[in-house]
Amino acid sequence: MKNEIVNHLNEPAQLEKMYQANKLSFKREFNQLYAEVKGNPLVDFWNERLNYKSEEINWGTGRELTFIIIASILAGLIAKLPIFLSLSEETFYQRNIGFIIFPVLSAYFAWKNKLSTGKIAFIATTTLIGIIFINSFPVAKKSDTLILSCIHLLLFLWSILGFAFVGEKRNNDEKRLSYLSYNGDLVVMTTLILIAGALMTAITNGLFSLIGINIEKFYFDYVGIFGLAAAPIVGTYLTQTNPQLVGKVSPVIAKLFSPLVLVMLVIYLIAMVYSGKDPYNDREFLMIFNALLIGVMAIIFFSVAETSKMAKSSTEIWILLLLSIVTIVVNGIALSAILFRISEWGITPNRTAVLGGNILILINLLLITRQLFRVLSKKAEISVVGKTIAFYLPVYFLWTIIVTFIFPFIFGYK
C-alpha cells in the first residue's frame, strides 16, 4: 500500500478511496511514509486528519447510549437468573457465565457494524446452540468433559464476538488484529472501571454503616451484580468511542511487559531445574505450567497486535523473537510432559485437550518466530507477523468447537 500512497499523493479522491477501503493499514503506512514526504499541503492535511486526538470525552449518540444502558441492564438480569428462577448458582454460573457478557457484546458490534441478516443469523444460531448444548449436559458430580466444555465454550463465544467485531470488512487480517488490540484495551478499561466501582462500593457501605444501616447484602445483590455485568459493556463502549483513552496506555503496557515476561520466563526455567519440580509427575504443576504458557501467548499476541500498528525498532523485534523462542521451549516441556503422562497412564479428556491445544500453540509459535526472524533479516515487514497471527486464529476456533461439542460424545460425558 505504501507505493500506492506515494503514487497518488496529489490525488485527493484516490487517497480517500484507499483510506475508506482499509483505514488501519492506510494510517500505518502513511505514518511510516510521512517523514519522507511532509511539506506537501495535501500530505500535511492527511497527517492532521489521521493523527488528530480529541481532548474531550465523546459520549456517542443518544441511540448508542440507550443501547448500552439496555444492554447493561439485560446482562445484569441474566446474571440474576439463578435468583429469579431458583436455580443452583454453582451450576448456572459454571455453565452460563459466558452468556452474561459475550452475546450482548456480539449484539453491540453486530448493530454497530450493520452486519447483514445472514451474519446476524449465524451469530444468533451459534450462540443458541451453545446455550442449549451446555444446559442439556447431563448432571454429574464429576465430569471432565463438562469442565472442558465450559472452559472452551468461553473461547467459542469469544470467537463469535470476534466474528461480530470483524463485521463486513474484506481484509479480515487487519480487523482480527484490531480485535486483539480491542481485547487488550478492554482489559485496561474494565480494570479501571472495576477499581472505581470498588472504591465507590467501599465508600457507600462505609457511609451507611456510620449511621447504623447495613446495606452490604442489598448493595451487592442489586448494585454490585449489575455493575460487574455492565463493566465490560461500558468498557467496550468507551474504547470504541474514545480510542485515545487507552490508545497510549496499551502500547506502553505491551512494550513494558514483553521484556519483563522474557526475563521472568528465563529465570523461572532455571529455578525449575534447581527446585526439582517437574511437570512430568506433578499434575498440578503441569496445569500451572500450561496456564503460564497460555498467558505468555496472550502477551505475545497483544504485543504483536500493538507492534504491527507502526514501525518498531529492532530491539523490540528482538525481544518478541526471544520471547517466542523461550515460549517454544516452555511449550516443548509441557508437550513432552503430556505425552509422557499419556504413555504412562493412558488417554483422558483432559490430557487429550491439553495435547491438542499445545500442538496448535507450538505450530503458531513456530510460524510467528519464523516471521519475526524474517523481519529482523529485512525479508519482511512487521505487519506480516500480525497477519500470521490473524490467519491462524480460526484454527483455535475450530479446536474450541471440537472440545466443546464433540469431546463429550467421544468420551461418553465422563
Automatic annotation (TrEMBL):
The chain crosses the membrane at residues 65-87, 93-111, 120-140, 146-166, 186-213, 219-240, 252-274, 286-305, 317-340, 352-368, 389-411. The keyword Signal does not apply. It comes from Pedobacter steynii. Keywords: Membrane, Transmembrane, Transmembrane helix. This is DUF4153 domain-containing protein.
